Amino acid sequence: MPSIAGGGPGRLFAAHRGAIWWLRRRQHPPFSSLAGGGRRGDAPHLPVLIVGAGPVGLVLSFLTKFGIKCAVIEKNVEFTRHPRAHFINNRTMEIFRKLDGLAGDIERSQPPVDLWRKFVYCTSLSGSVLGSVDHMKPEDFDKVISPISVAHFSQ
């Protein structure tokens, strides 16, 4: 059953651990509860329903900062056991820079670049390394093409 984000502080939806960490640190959560018109029997008015608490859904929930009521629903009630996307490109970080310091929080919380810039192929978690591929270029971090660099936001 989908869960609806909103309400009290204990009603955060199951999403990315890092995103939840960031949301809990905010003074005002970026989502609102389902609010009705005030009179008994009025149907609740919800202009925006955001389906999915992934990166896009969480950013869309910032609509409440502009006075637009919204709710986020997420089908998963537990964290995934498998890693998902962790890389945040320059353009996304530029947008995050304008969202209450989100880019700065991500930059401060990410591990050192050398720990995540390569794909390492091995026989098992503690087995022999078969090889590694570095997918980053110096300009990804030099802030030449963008005022902010790429980032890693682990789950």
UniProtKB/TrEMBL annotation:
GO term, biological process aspect, one: ubiquinone biosynthetic process
> One GO cellular component from the entry?
mitochondrion
Record-linked SUPFAM superfamilies: FAD/NAD(P)-binding domain
Q: Which InterPro entries match?
A: FAD-bd (IPR002938), FAD/NAD-bd_sf (IPR036188), RIFMO-like (IPR050641)
The domain of life is Eukaryota
Q: Which GO terms describe its molecular function?
A: FAD binding; oxidoreductase activity, acting on paired donors, with incorporation or reduction of molecular oxygen, NAD(P)H as one donor, and incorporation of one atom of oxygen
Chain ranges of the FAD-binding domain:
46-128
Which keywords annotate this record? FAD, Flavoprotein
Q: What is this protein called?
A: FAD-binding domain-containing protein
